[in-house]
Amino acid sequence: MLPKILVFAGSNRTGAFSGQVANVAVRTLVELGADVTRIALIDYLLPLMDQDLEQEKGIPENAMKLGRLFAAHDGILIASPEYNSSIPPLVKNTIDWVSRISKDGDKPLKPYAGKVVALCSSSDGNFGGARGLYHLRSVMMNVGTQIITEQCSVPRAQDAFAEDGSFKDERTAKSMQRTCQSLIDHTRFAISRR
């Protein structure tokens, strides 16, 4: 059985480096034998997380759609930019809303239960967005996912991609391959224990 992996970027900006990293991840995961779904968070716009809003109107339908997608996959790969050495608000808001879900109608729904997560980052600086992944790692641990150790950070992202969308730098490509292989391996192990 192929592990089902959900991939998304943490920016909706046209031409975002994180979107390009997510695209490389998708190709790499498919080459390594995963069943991959790539989504764009712009298709699941959400209001700012607000418990008063939740109490008044319930969980937004786009959060429910994301929760169902998360639950339907064995693993998740997030390609995140770094905003001021931390998590972009789009990613944090998405994680927070999905964490509020406990049921879908009258059926239990735990979107993060048993999920294996890989983290990637990018920036136009020398650290490749890695500083933001410390915070993202902490948040994903708190919602109950298993985060793999391997991660892929892409420094100087404005110069990192070839015309075909692949990484120019072999070291970065190998880092992505290690990250994706580890995600697949950990996901397969998690599936075998169900």
UniProtKB/TrEMBL annotation:
InterPro entries xrefs: Flavoprotein-like_sf (IPR029039), FMN_Rdtase-like_dom (IPR005025), NAD(P)H-dep_reductase (IPR050712)
Domain NADPH-dependent FMN reductase-like residues, every copy: 3-158
GO MF annotation list: FMN binding; oxidoreductase activity
GO cellular component, one term: cytosol
Cross-referenced Gene3D superfamilies: 3.40.50.360
Annotated Pfam families: FMN_red (PF03358)
Protein name: NAD(P)H-dependent FMN reductase
